[in-house]
Amino acid sequence: MGMENKEYKKIADFMLKTIKKAYKVCSKQAIEINDKNEFDLVTTLDTSIEEYIISKLNKNFSGVKVISEEFNSKVQDGGTYFVIDPIDGTINFANGIDAWGIQMAYVEDNETKASAIYRPNDKSEYIAIKNGGAFKNGKKFVCHVKPALKSVYAIELKNIEYENKACAYLYNKLLRYRRLNASCINSIYTAEGNFGAYIAQNGNPWDIRPGNLLMEEAGCFHKNVGRATLFANSQEVLDILENAHEYAKVALEENKKIAEKQTKSAKPTKKVSATKTSKKTSKPETDKKQQTKRKTTK
């Protein structure tokens, strides 16, 4: 490992040590669960862990900006910075589902150089160093390759229509899909080879950067396709994912064209105004003349 990689290894070790200490200290406190928005939750453990990590970063890496989910989500990425996800998979955690973790990454010149992920429930720990490998519990590992039809895959996208189309294409080409709603767990399972593939939403840096580096350094094949990044345990599986992406993309474009055509062809209905009819009916003009004639003859 070169001198540069050794420095990134030190940063990765520091992040892992800080994450573990943050959980040990903060998990002793009473934990409250609150609504973050209509479709998400946040706990006091999220906020206390993030505060603890930020305090350590400010002390040891003064001047380096921090982008984090709870307190610094509006900070623009770019340049050199740390990312923090204090609990990735908060909804799982809040509901007692063991599919969550704590993760961090160090980014330099917009490239992720080091990352760390910790799973408190089983105490498994992961670090990755750019061009230096992926490590689990201190031991270097690589992705385990499986045949396509024996490969479970994960998919996490915000566009449900796209996701459904991709899954329809992948039916009988890969084994089955899983949706864990925790980027770090999807990344760990893909890096280790439990998942043969992962279609990952290109989203917030604290969600994607730690796990993406872990998968890359474990030897996963990968390709950015715009709305998502595809990860696979082999070139064969990556090709299948690319085909699924193209299939979903074309299907969505066709659906959009059909919807636009239907909108244009739909003619607006004209409102028919009802004319008011008078209750009094006018008598014919001949009747009026006869009445006048009768009066004059009397």
Structural account:
This protein has helices at 3-26, 44-60, 90-94, 160-170, 183-192, 205-217, 235-265, 285-297, and strands at 33-37, 40-43, 65-68, 81-88, 101-108, 111-119, 124-129, 133-136, 139-141, 153-156, 177-178, 197-201, 221-224, 228-232. The relative contact order is 0.11. Helices cover 42% and strands 24% of the residues. The protein has one domain (3-249): Fructose-1,6-Bisphosphatase, Chain A, domain 1. The model is unreliable at 277-282 and 292-298 (pLDDT under 50). It starts with a helix and ends with a helix. The strands form 3 sheets. Strands 3-4-5-6-7-8-9 form a 7-stranded mixed β-sheet, sandwiched between helices. A 5-stranded mixed β-sheet has the order 11-10-12-14-13, sandwiched between helices.
Secondary structure topology:
Elements: H1 3-26, E1 33-37, E2 40-43, H2 44-60, E3 65-68, E4 81-88, H3 90-94, E5 101-108, E6 111-119, E7 124-129, E8 133-136, E9 139-141, E10 153-156, H4 160-170, E11 177-178, H5 183-192, E12 197-201, H6 205-217, E13 221-224, E14 228-232, H7 235-265, H8 285-297
Parallel strand pairs: 3-4, 10-11, 10-12
Antiparallel strand pairs: 1-2, 4-5, 5-6, 6-7, 7-8, 8-9, 12-14, 13-14
Helix pairs in contact: 1-2, 4-7, 5-6
Short structural summary:
With 298 residues, this protein is α+β, with helices and mostly antiparallel strands. It has helices at 3-26, 44-60, 90-94, 160-170, 183-192, 205-217, 235-265, 285-297; strands at residues 33-37, 40-43, 65-68, 81-88, 101-108, 111-119, 124-129, 133-136, 139-141, 153-156, 177-178, 197-201, 221-224, 228-232.
Top keywords for this entry?
single chain, 298 residues, alpha+beta, Fructose-1,6-Bisphosphatase, Chain A, domain 1, 24% strand, disordered C terminus
